[in-house]
Design brief:
This protein is an alpha/beta fold and 158 residues long. The chain is built from seven helices and four strands, in the order βααβααααβαβ. Strands 2-1-3-4 form a four-stranded parallel β-sheet. α5 crosses α6. The model has no long low-confidence stretch (mean pLDDT 92).
Length: 158
């Protein structure tokens, strides 16, 4: 059985990143490497929130970015998910944005995604926050996904 991976907004964004600073170039290369050569090892899912975030604004790579994730299964945002987001916000786990990082984490946790794949290292892939995430998810009786980047998933398991 393939492990389920929740694809957060930054993954398709960095796949089509056009900035040329060293960090952006590296993230684009690692994202493309994982997407092109490793994603087939996983069951990928997204949410309406990812689609909404990518559809907002007017940017040069919008069509290609949306095309990259077209057809991926969408996880439903239910009342249970909204309740989890509210709990995350009340525990100050994530910034006070109902449609942002707390929602991505709630979806990945509620739907038992093994991994939440993101480049958001401030609020999601953050070792300093992980214990807080695990504590709150345990209090809520939720699965605790591994929150990681494409770079971390490019190497074969031994």
């Amino acid at each position: 059985m393939k492990r389920r991976v929740y694809i957060e907004t930054t993954i398709p964004s960095y796949y089509h990143e056009i900035r040329e600073d060293p960090e952006s170039i590296a993230k684009r290369q690692w994202t493309r490497e994982w997407w092109n050569n490793h994603r087939h090892n996983y069951e990928l899912v997204i949410s309406p929130s990812v689609m909404d975030e990518l559809e907002r604004g007017n940017y040069l790579t919008k069509v290609d970015t949306l095309k990259l994730i077209a057809g991926l299964p969408l996880l439903e945002i239910t009342e249970n998910i909204e309740d989890i987001v509210a709990e995350y916000l009340s525990h100050k786990l994530m910034p006070q944005d109902l449609g942002g990082d707390a929602l991505h984490l709630a979806l990945a946790s509620y739907y038992h995604c093994h991994l939440l794949l993101t480049w958001n290292c401030q609020n999601l892939v953050n070792a300093n926050k992980f214990e807080h995430i695990r504590h709150v998810n345990t209090l809520l009786g939720l699965f605790v996904p591994i929150i990681t980047t494409p770079y971390e998933l490019m190497y074969e398991e031994v």
